[in-house]
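One record is given unchanged without comment:
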Amino acid sequence: QVQLVESGGGLVQAGGSLRLSCAASGRSFSNYAVGWFRQPPGKEREFVAAVAWSGGITFYTDYTDSVRGRFTISRDNAKNTVYLQMNSLKPEDTAVYYCAARRQSRPRVGVDDYDYWGQGTQVTVSS
């Protein structure tokens, strides 16, 4: 089992930045793909970004088009933590952000493709 805990959400003005963290416990991320998803108010949960690695080296990252160039997903091996750096935030980025892990090294963009989920952290971007 893997337990995931997100942190770092909050209220920020448009154009600002936040860094979300996803800390894993129970077992290592080492062979799991990890993704970030978000659920805007009244909408379905959607893919944001994903990262995969092997042998401690990141070999794959992917982003949804609306965040590419603004968000960066990364990982800290020593802390067993995945981050989502969010820059140039827009009001439409407002959502609950979730971290998810998949028991395979290859990432996917579908909600149903992930096995473990955190509780979510709220990000609100004011205009």
Notes: DSSP finds no helices and eleven strands in the chain. The CA atoms of residues 71 and 86 lie 4 Å apart. The chain has a mean pLDDT of 93.
